[in-house]
Amino acid sequence: MKNYVVAFGLALSGLAAGAAQAQTVTDTDGNGVYSIEELKAAYPSVDAAKFAEIDQNADGSVDADELQAAIEAGKL
Ligand SMILES: [Ca+2]
Ligand SMILES: [Ca+2]
Questions:
Q1: Which ligand is closest in space to the CA of residue 64?
Q2: Residue 46's domain spans which residues?
Q3: Is 15 inside a domain boundary?
Q4: Which of 22, 14, 15, 12 is nearest to 70 (CA)?
Q5: Cα of 4 from ligand 1 centre, angstroms
Q6: Mean pLDDT, the chain cut into blocks of 10 residues (76 residues total)
Q7: Which of 7, 34, 59, 60 could form a disulfide with 38 if both were Cys (CB 3.0 to 4.6 A apart)?
């Protein structure tokens, strides 16, 4: 029951956020790509395996295209 209430609350806050529902990933160090630390700041559920999945060209960082693709694929 508790889990249901939490999920319902999250759904409500997602609805309230509307178009801003997608998390914003900040390029904290300004190098133009996203590191696993930068992704985790916006998506705490990202771990090494998830990051590798998002990093399609396996260069160790996620660029804007890879991030967009991951969001569209529902991976984030
Ligand atoms: Ca960065
Ligand atoms: Ca990459």
A1: 2
A2: 28-76
A3: no
A4: 22
A5: 36
A6: 57 48 87 98 97 98 97 95
A7: 34
64: left (phi over 0), alpha (psi -120 to 50) or beta: alpha
Question: How remote is the CA of residue 72 from the centroid of ligand 1, in Å?
Answer: 21
Ligand located closest to 41 CA: 1
Number of domains in the chain: 1
Q: What is the CATH number of the domain that holds 39?
A: 1.10.238
Cα(41) to centroid(ligand 1), Å: 12
Indicate whether 8 belongs to any domain. Answer: no
Instruction: Give domain status of residue 40, yes or no.
Output: yes
Instruction: Note the ligand closest to the C-alpha atom of 53.
Output: 2
Predicted pLDDT of residue 44: 96
Please list all protein residues whose beta carbon sits less than 5 angstroms from ligand 1, which is an ion: 27, 29, 31
